[in-house]
């Protein structure tokens, strides 16, 4: 049974509200209030005379019931009966506690109810008023519907069953990630409702078939009809959307909205753009619906066994879904869930976007190491062994899967050698690059890794140019140990840039993001989990700027000359390693106390009178020069 609720039995006069309400109050062991007992005398007199009540007659009465219900909620809740025929009446009655209000709508035909009214004695409502009640009635959307022709005992049994069976968490969209998360929730003992749309001939009975396929989903309820799905959930409803990012999320929200009640919570668990999440949050809040934009990382397997979850939005809404998300999340070395409230607005999706940007670079660096080792004459199996030996110094999930990938054979041939060398993307790297440009932050490695994918996609052009530059220089000899060090160096720069980007975004958007907590969330479950992330966690507790950490400074000082050497060797060998090179170049630029930007400023002033500032000018005035 769901506790601390007000169960309101509603419907036209004569539908049997009092009998159902009294029996239900007994069954739920909750106090019973009959709304009719709280009508002002003037209303009773009016009805006795056969005069239907106006809206204005009802407000004082509904306000009374509202106060009564709020008092009851402070204790154990109550069962209340009230005709509550119109939506506005229901809103007035449940004002301030709509999320704790469960509506039970007694539905029956005019003829049946008229028969009952005529049989009952002593009630102030004359039968002639029934038609006006039916005229006023607006059937509720979010109520449990009860057919009043059933015997009372059956009605109560049905209600008991419904309350016991109300699901606590809804999963909307059963694609790969949605399915895995659903199973994860069920394995954690949550009572869940599943929804997947019905698309004739394409997606039919998806939720039902999925439920039937996995024993852990035995207790789950499966739907392909939105109203039934929403009504199967206890309030405040918690619905996680696992649909493709983009306009589909807006369509789904529009479809769900008419069935939701004030205070319900929607969680978008897709890779949505953080600006869309902010827009959706504002819109849904205006509709009194709570919204959480949650980044979810870990792919299909992670979603099933424990993803890393980055929820953003209102802290209050997060508190209501925290037990569910924390239970299904991966656990860190300290046993804590890899799920933590990230911050306001779209910050959850922002950090997930940057996660993906870091992921792009980590993948690109491994691909570049593969390119170098291939150029040095190693085959995939050998490269896998070399990468295996790197685990003790620089282990990560992406390194591990790359080893598996390199070892995979089809017949005698490594499968990677059969894969077309054109890298795709779903957009999060683009968004990170756009965000970094908008914020004026140099996340150069992310942009580089993205552009490397773009360059790869110009396959025909590459083939044409390859024919022109047919003769490559001899490949320089490179030490495997040096490659590992250069790789490690670039990874540190990658993580430094990623956290800097988040730190700057947090300042700009006034999000209160704790970088060390975010690093903790990223130590397990996600695609960029690694030993390095575990190492960075305590450093971020000291400062948001990783380069403040003496240990990291020393490491970079030691690794830099080796990274310089490897980059130089790659350039001389004409092996494309744009991200590795950029990591060295970026640090070169960052460590240049007196840069060449003075030239840029002078040029801007020359052709555009954009002015410049002078060194050692405490007033930092703008100067303009006539240059010729
Ligand atoms: C994750 C992944 C996941 C997805 C990427 C792929 O954290 O689980 O990042 O979100 O695999 O979106 O992105 P691309 O298709 O752009 O490489």
Characterise the protein shown here.
The chain has 628 residues and is an alpha/beta fold. The chain has four domains: 160 residues, P-loop containing nucleotide triphosphate hydrolases (Rossmann fold); 179 residues, NAD(P)-binding Rossmann-like Domain (Rossmann fold); 239 residues, N-(1-d-carboxylethyl)-l-norvaline Dehydrogenase, domain 2 (Orthogonal Bundle), CATH 1.10.1040.10; 35 residues, Up-down Bundle (Single alpha-helices involved in coiled-coils or other helix-helix interfaces), CATH 1.20.5.320. Helices cover 54% and strands 10% of the residues. The protein contains 26 helices and 14 strands. It has a seven-stranded mixed beta sheet, with helices on both faces. It has a five-stranded parallel beta sheet with strand order 2-3-1-4-5, with helices on both faces. α21 packs across α24 and α22 runs antiparallel to α23. The longest helix has 30 residues. It is elongated and about 105 Å long. The termini are far apart. The structure holds 6-phosphogluconic acid. The site of 6-phosphogluconic acid (6PG) has 12 residues, from α15 and α18. The site of 6-phosphogluconic acid has 12 residues, from α15 and α18.
């Amino acid at each position: 049974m769901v506790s601390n609720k007000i169960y309101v039995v509603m419907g036209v006069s004569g539908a049997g509200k009092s009998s159902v309400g009294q029996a239900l109050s007994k069954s739920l062991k909750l106090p019973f209030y009959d709304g009719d007992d709280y009508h002002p005398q003037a209303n009773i007199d009016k009805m006795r005379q056969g005069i239907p009540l106006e809206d204005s007659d009802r407000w004082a009465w509904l306000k009374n019931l509202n106060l009564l219900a709020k008092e009851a909620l402070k204790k154990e809740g109550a069962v209340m009966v009230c005709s509550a025929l119109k939506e506005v009446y229901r809103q007035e009655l449940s004002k301030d506690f709509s999320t704790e209000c469960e509506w039970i709508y007694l539905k029956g035909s005019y003829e049946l109810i008229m028969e009952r009214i005529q049989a009952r004695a002593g009630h102030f409502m004359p039968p002639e008023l029934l038609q006006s009640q039916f005229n006023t009635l607006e059937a509720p959307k979010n109520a449990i519907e009860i057919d009043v022709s059933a015997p009372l005992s059956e009605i109560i049994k049905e209600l008991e069953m419904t309350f016991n069976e109300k699901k606590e968490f809804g999963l909307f969209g059963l694609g790969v990630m949605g399915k895995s998360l659903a199973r994860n929730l069920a394995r954690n003992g949550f009572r869940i409702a599943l929804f997947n749309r019905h698309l004739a001939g394409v997606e039919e009975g998806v939720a039902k078939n999925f439920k039937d396929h996995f024993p852990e989903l035995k207790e789950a309820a499966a739907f392909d009809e939105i109203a039934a799905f929403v009504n199967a959930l206890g309030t405040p409803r918690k619905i996680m959307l696992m649909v493709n990012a983009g306009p589909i999320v807006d369509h789904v929200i529009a479809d769900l909205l008419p069935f939701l009640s004030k205070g319900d919570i929607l969680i978008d668990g897709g890779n949505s753009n953080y600006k869309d999440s902010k827009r959706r949050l504002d819109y849904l809040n205006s509709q009194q619906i709570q919204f959480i934009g949650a980044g979810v990382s870990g792919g299909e397997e992670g979603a099933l066994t424990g993803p890393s979850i980055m929820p953003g939005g209102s802290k209050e809404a997060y508190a209501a879904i925290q037990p569910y998300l924390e239970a299904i999340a991966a656990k860190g070395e300290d046993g804590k869930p890899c799920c933590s409230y990230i911050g306001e607005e779209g910050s959850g999706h922002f950090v997930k976007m940057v996660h993906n940007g870091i992921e792009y670079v980590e993948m690109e660096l491994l691909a570049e190491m593969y390119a170098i080792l291939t150029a040095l004459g190693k085959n995939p199996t050998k490269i896998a062994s070399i990468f295996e030996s790197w685990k003790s110094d620089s282990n990560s999930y992406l390194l591990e899967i790359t080893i598996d990938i390199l070892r995979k054979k089809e017949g005698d041939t490594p499968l990677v050698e059969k894969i077309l060398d054109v890298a795709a993307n779903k957009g999060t790297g683009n968004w990170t690059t756009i965000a970094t440009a908008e914020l004026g932050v140099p996340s150069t490695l992310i942009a580089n890794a993205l552009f490397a994918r773009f360059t790869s996609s110009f396959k025909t052009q590459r083939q044409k140019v390859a024919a022109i530059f047919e003769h490559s220089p001899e490949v320089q000899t490179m030490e495997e140990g040096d490659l590992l060090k250069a790789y490690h160096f670039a990874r540190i720069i990658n993580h430094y840039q990623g956290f800097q980007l988040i730190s700057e975004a947090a300042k700009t958007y006034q999000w209160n993001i704790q970088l060390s907590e975010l690093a903790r969330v990223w130590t397990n479950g996600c695609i960029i989990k690694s030993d390095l992330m575990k190492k960075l966690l305590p450093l971020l507790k000291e400062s948001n700027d990783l380069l403040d950490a003496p240990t990291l400074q020393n490491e970079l000082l030691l690794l830099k000359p080796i990274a310089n050497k490897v980059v130089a060797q790659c350039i001389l060998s004409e092996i494309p390693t744009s991200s590795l090179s950029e990591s060295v170049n970026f640090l070169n630029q960052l460590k240049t106390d007196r840069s060449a930007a003075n030239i840029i400023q002078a040029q801007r002033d020359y052709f555009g009178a954009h002015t410049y500032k002078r060194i050692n000018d405490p007033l930092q005035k703008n100067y303009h020069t006539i240059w010729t």
